[in-house]
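Session log. Operator J.P. requested a structure for one protein chain; no other inputs attached. Running the standard single-chain path with token output.
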Amino acid sequence: MTADTAGFLAAAGDFLRADPARNTVMLSVTEDLLLKAAAPGETLFGWWQPDGEQVRAAFMHTPDYPLILSRVSGPAAAALARDLTADSATGRRIPGVNVGQEVADAFAAAWRNRTGDAVAVYRRMRLFRLGELIPPRPWPEGTARLAAGTERDLLARWFGAFAREVGDPPGQDHSKAAAGRLAYGGITVWEAGGVPVSVAGRTRAVAGMVRVGPVYTPPELRGHGYAGAATAAVSQAALDAGLREVVLYTDLANPTSNALYQRLGYRPVEDRVVLSFTPAWQGLRFTRERTRGLRPAGRR
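Structure written below.
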């Protein structure tokens, strides 16, 4: 394990780049950290290299987010959970895990046995990869363009609204995130009648791969096909740039977005589950607080 991005990539970079679609998040995060020339920080990385063999798995953990784990065996995932709980003196709080269902169950069982945490399903996701792009028909009114620096405040509000809708951890600096994307042309706006109506982001390109997202349209502007058009525009731009793999994640609980991306030519790659871990004392406190709030009317 290490907090040194360059050291992690020196050890596990070839493993990650061998399957850039499935390892999209770790690749894009490490690329951002390298370009920022960030010193070792709060993000923890790790890799599994049994008995001096080639790297067989990797993980990444950013505070407040679930630990994201590559494809790995269940026993290796359980061993990682035990290693992380044994290192609890560092004060690192891991609120969940993001990986395939079978491996997530193995990790969670070991974690629960060591910590007593309650385990629950937080989100089920599907990774899609673009095959042949199928433009939406008919195209909605408007055109695509790169977002302008003067739209930073608007984009920050839309990023924040998107994060609240999908249940991402609160407290993120969406203005900083918008500025970071603007710096490399990572936000495309769909404009209709001279007004921005939808937005589609993308990560930096790394290992011939780019990930689309977030895609957001304000609720009052939905139903016109703007999100599909913005996604198609970003996807086409990635293909025009010569990128081999264009990927995105969907929430399986959202049938609208899952159907939309498949109509555009995206095809399933793998499913993931995000499990949440909650300390038993937090659940007990929540139960007590709810009990206090259920006193009969008229009593204090």
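Operator note: The chain is about 40% helix and 25% strand.
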